[in-house]
Amino acid sequence: MNGGEVVVVTGFGPFRQFLVNPSWKAAKGLKLVGFGERTDIFIREVPVSYVKTQQIIAEIWQTLHPKFAVHLGVARGSSDVFLEQTGKNSGYRDKDVCGFCPESQCCVEGGPEKLDSVVNMRAVAKEFKQAGTDVIYSRDAGRYLCDFAYYFSLYHGQRRAALIHVPSSGSLTSADRLVPLLQSLIHTMLDQLEDPQKPHEEMMTEDFSKPAVTARSSDYEDKQSDLFSL
């Protein structure tokens, strides 16, 4: 630990055809590259379980007191990255890997129907699109474990959380492209947290739609041999 501000990144555990969930792979990649010397990053794998999700996310906010929590999920059948603005409280009808779903079909009984992140995800997506990266803004996270985890984190973390759906197909599934993109997205979100009024009109220098190696992707490649020992 550097004694700096804490950012927590979560990814999900095995689910259906994903013996190793791509969201957890991405979280481990982010642990390798980090967010700078003044930020401590913690990663947690979250089982695809409603009960375990609530336990782990509550523990994160109660014990680590992070500045920001980033939850990674998988956009099945998509080659795009989605930035989710909103978490929903109700409508959870699908069973988890344990065969369970909440009897109330709610995340937090009596809680608001929806919660939005303090980060303006539309502004973040617009900035990256202007730089040539097709990051998609979304207000519907799917009403399954990703959405459930997001709402629970927004509720307990005073809305200081993000949900990013990573692709399950296409070129961005390559860790040396996805991890630097996620790193830059999260840096942009953290910058917005520092100054919510800061305009996000500056063009970024990195173009993640092309296979060119950037400084950040080089950082990842230098360390990726360690990834499988985590």
Automatic annotation (TrEMBL):
Record's keyword terms, sorted: Cytoplasm, Hydrolase, Protease, Thiol protease
User: Which GO BP terms apply?
Assistant: proteolysis
Positions of region (Disordered): 197-230
Per the record, what is one GO cellular component? Answer: cytosol
Single Gene Ontology MF annotation:
pyroglutamyl-peptidase activity
Q: Does the keyword Transcription apply?
A: no
Has keyword Protease? yes
Q: Name one Pfam family in it.
A: Peptidase_C15
Classification via InterPro entries: Peptidase_C15, Peptidase_C15-like, Peptidase_C15-like_sf
Composition-biased stretches, type Basic and acidic residues, lie in: 197-209, 218-230
Protein family per UniProt: Belongs to the peptidase C15 family.
Q: Which PANTHER family match?
A: PROTEASE FAMILY C15 PYROGLUTAMYL-PEPTIDASE I-RELATED (PTHR23402), PYROGLUTAMYL-PEPTIDASE I (PTHR23402:SF1)
> What name has this protein been given in UniProt?
Pyroglutamyl-peptidase I like
What is the phylogenetic placement of the source species in the record?
Answer: Eukaryota, Metazoa, Chordata, Craniata, Vertebrata
